[in-house]
Amino acid sequence: MSIPFIDLATQQTRLKSDIDARMAKVLAHGKYIMGPEIAELEHLLLEFCGARHALSVSSGTDALLMALMGDGIGPGDAVFLPAFTFTATAEVVIIAGATPVFVDVDAGNYNIDYDDLQRRIDIVVSDGKLRPRAIMPVDLFGLSADYVRLGQIAADHDMLVIADAAQSFGGNIRGQRVGSLAPISATSFFPAKPLGCYGDGGAIFTDDDDRADRWKSIRAHGKGGQKYDIVRIGLNARLDTLQAAILLSKMTIFDEEIVAREKLAKKYDARLANRVILPGREEGYQSAWAQYTIQVENRDEIIASLRENDVPTAVYYPLPMHLQTAYASYGDGKGSLPVSERLSGSVLSLPMHPYMSEATADAICDAVIEAVNT
Length: 374
Known about the structure:
Blueprint: H1 8-29, H2 36-49, E1 53-57, H3 60-70, E2 77-82, H4 87-95, E3 99-103, H5 114-127, E4 131-135, H6 147-156, E5 160-164, E6 172-173, E7 176-177, E8 184-188, E9 202-206, H7 209-218, H8 241-251, H9 254-272, E10 285-286, E11 292-295, H10 299-308, H11 338-344, E12 347-350, H12 358-373
Parallel strand pairs: 2-3, 2-4, 4-5, 5-8
Antiparallel strand pairs: 1-9, 6-7, 6-10, 8-9, 11-12
Helix pairs in contact: 1-8, 2-8, 3-4, 3-7, 9-12, 10-12
């Protein structure tokens, strides 16, 4: 029997009657753009994470772009971000007109390396061609970066921290939830995320009233007080009301699902310890477990062995950003970010979702152990 990598079907079956009712309500009132479900969702999101403002948007990518646009980050500005991440983090910097500066990551937890970050900030300052304006860490695979430390580094250079929390919403650090850890946090509701809708979607969080007002304008084409009063360059970046209705339903079980993800992660930890390199944990940190990512040798052979046992896998990410064709001119070439380059050749993500049975988890672990011992 095939094992799902992410089991959205079981979740949908569980929520079907509630989702159907919520979507029927939207179809009845017909307010498909900025309907009442949008405000209801935004209120639940800010209550959930503890931020003062939560704005729903069309995607996690647009959330990141709005964060840059809202603070006027653009030409002549340097934005520091990890190379071991998805393209969205880098592409928005270039779309905004700024320059990405790629930073290596920590081999244990996959998040931005603070020492390498400081070194690259110093290089940019010494070079004098760009203004260091922002740090955009990525909470990779669900584990938050250390935003206290990042805030200290940023403060020393009068920089802004923008958290790319596309994979970590639902996690926390010592009880303080993702969305309230950084001055700005952006997340994604892509279907495969821990909290996902049935299309593209995202949200952006802040405690700053002025920023929130700017973002409201930007997501609606830059409008001012009236629809055709355009006061800034903006985007068409609103979340659809139907997607908000789906997210409202999913939020009713979100806490429970995060607990189930943690239970599965601990199961993997216990079974796979000393067999593979496990994902790093930090004391006081709760991951959202968007992915459970191990490190292995002979990855291709292990993937093939797991496939024979009907265990799906994924590789996030097979090539770091500084070696991608589109970004090569912004990096320093092969060998410049050794940890990111090594991880791209050794990471492997296993099935992770809150509906996995004990028997299936054991079957996956058995298959991994067999593969690495072959």
